[in-house]
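Notes from hallway chat w/ T.B., transcribed later so I don't forget. T.B. wanted the structure written out for a chain they're using in a teaching module, and asked if we could keep both sequence and structure tokens in one place. Agreed to drop them here.
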Amino acid sequence: MKMTVDFEECLKDSPRFRAALEEVEGDVAELELKLDKLVKLCIAMIDTGKAFCVANKQFMNGIRDLAQYSSNDAVVETSLTKFSDSLQEMINFHTILFDQTQRSIKAQLQNFVKEDLRKFKDAKKQFEKVSEEKENALVKNAQVQRNKQHEVEEATNILTATRKCFRHIALDYVLQINVLQSKRRSEILKSMLSFMYAHLAFFHQGYDLFSELGPYMKDLGAQLDRLVVDAAKEKREMEQKHSTIQQKDFSSDDSKLEYNVDAANGIVMEGYLFKRASNAFKTWNRRWFSIQNNQLVYQKKFKDNPTVVVEDLRLCTVKHCEDIERRFCFEVVSPTKSCMLQADSEKLRQAWIKAVQTSIATAYREKGDESEKLDKKSSPSTGSLDSGNESKEKLLKGESALQRVQCIPGNASCCDCGLADPRWASINLGITLCIECSGIHRLGVHFSKVRSLTLDTWEPELLKLMCELGNDVINRVYEANVEKMGIKKPQPGQRQEKEAYIRAKYVERKFVDKYSISLSPPEQQKKFVSKSSEEKRLSISKFGPGDQVRASAQSSVRSNDSGIQQSSDDGRESLPSTVSANSLYEPEGERQDSSMFLDSKHLNPGLQLYRASYEKNLPKMAEALAHGADVNWANSEENKATPLIQAVLGGSLVTCEFLLQNGANVNQRDVQGRGPLHHATVLGHTGQVCLFLKRGANQHATDEEGKDPLSIAVEAANADIVTLLRLARMNEEMRESEGLYGQPGDETYQDIFRDFSQMASNNPEKLNRFQQDSQKF
């Protein structure tokens, strides 16, 4: 920076002062040129940046279009969606950067040029004018003759006034120069510092964004490496298969014929046959026929829903048909109708007849198991079964999760700041969040577990949990005293205020209504548990596990026989609606009345959680946790049962999931050595058994009688639970033998558990087969 002009030299109006002025004026003129050039370059940079953002956004939209086009490939769709969302965030960051650049460089420096440099120029003009007037006064004063006293006095007065004016304006000019020299330093540095801070924020936001995306990209890279290896392997297998098929004899279509009664997809045999229509013209049409799930069906096109020819093969017969002109015909006859079919050759006709006869025999051997197979198996040629799978996959996609969760009251805006269209969620709290609040919510998984509603895959029980709670429910608990305390919720964009508010709300729980416990816990809580626990201990001592299961089945039979409707809307296992879950372990005369429960505000938080878990009351459970309830609280008056065990007895899958997401120990056992998995197995709650196995339950643990869940399920003859336990045990042994610790297991194991999870959450009535079979026998 140039040296400032001295005020003393200004009064002398010395040559040094004039030289300093000349140097300053030249420097200011050059400064104005530099600043004008910088502002123009800034405007050009901003315009170019905005054009870049527009082009980048078009590119990002192209990626999204490609992701939607790839909807049938989950890996490609998920990856492209994640990448496009990240690019959209970067575009937003770029836009913010250009806005801040415009404010810090363009606006601030332009204001400096227009205001401060203009003042300098105005002061310069006044100084030059008064300097010229002073010079004229000096010349005139020097030219006055001595004998003209009147002119001498007039010239002296003019010179004195001019000098005084000159000094005043000159000092103002020097002051303006010095102020300008000092201010230009602060203005330039201030604008550049603001510009650099904008860049710092931009790169920091980008780093944070890609730090979160980094692990996914790393996993995707490893997956791509495996895909390359698998593609090479598949190519070799296809080439080998191609050469093998080329060597076969295709003189007729007979070589293509195969049938398998034990086919994994349920299709015993399939192929083209001619079918005679039942109309008056008796026309013949070629259709694709298949024998699957003890039914004979056909379809014209692959996407068409199959038409069932025979509902149950056990009720039909098949025979040759030689009394018509067409060759290779056979007839399938049922009690209500007959179907005339024609094969392409005699060999094919014999094969179809044998396949139908074998399927009939198999159907008789399996008796009532056909409904179970229909639930578990799906056929690629059966449109109705395909539609079930498609809806199941669609349910797990991020966009479907977003739409379902945002329909819950209060979920259309962020739970903490109110920003519209939140795309993130806290799964253990059951609330929706904006992206900024979701970042602040990473306080630790014991406080909040954050997941994306659009980028992550949602398990059915977790999605159902989100739909049971919601922002309105949770805020009534965690913000009960906000208005009383005079605290305002933070607005979108107030990062520091949000951090303080969220920490106070969820970690310190300052806004929770700290109601007083009006009754003495040691005395009053005994009123709730003492009689129940004493009777339960007496009743359990009278019954072994097998008797308990039979008591459970008998209770179900009684409720069903009396016409009591069982609820399945929330994914709960079926229980008699007039009988408490605890009573499944008790004789009928010793069942407890639920009216013994006290008002929740008179219970300590642990007992409130214990009670609400049995009653399937998620809002009360959330309230108890907010008041500091231990999620693994053990009731010493109830055989040290935990809230999770009570949730099992209550029969709600969503209640169990809520407790597990909030840190419940899936292996904590009662005094009889029974954990949640034991109780779910005894009660025949298949969905809960599936959930506990997925959450790491130890199925090798034994109770005080030395029985593990598998032995209990075998004794109860519950096929579904035995299947799940054995699959989990086989998968565990396989992973241990292959050293795959921490891996989820093979695809078959995952598919079966995924199907059971879907049924438990969306079609729980399909898991009631065990109870229905108990009624038959």
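Follow-up for T.B.: Confidence is low (pLDDT under 50) at residues 367-398, 516-598, 770-777. Might be a good example for the class.
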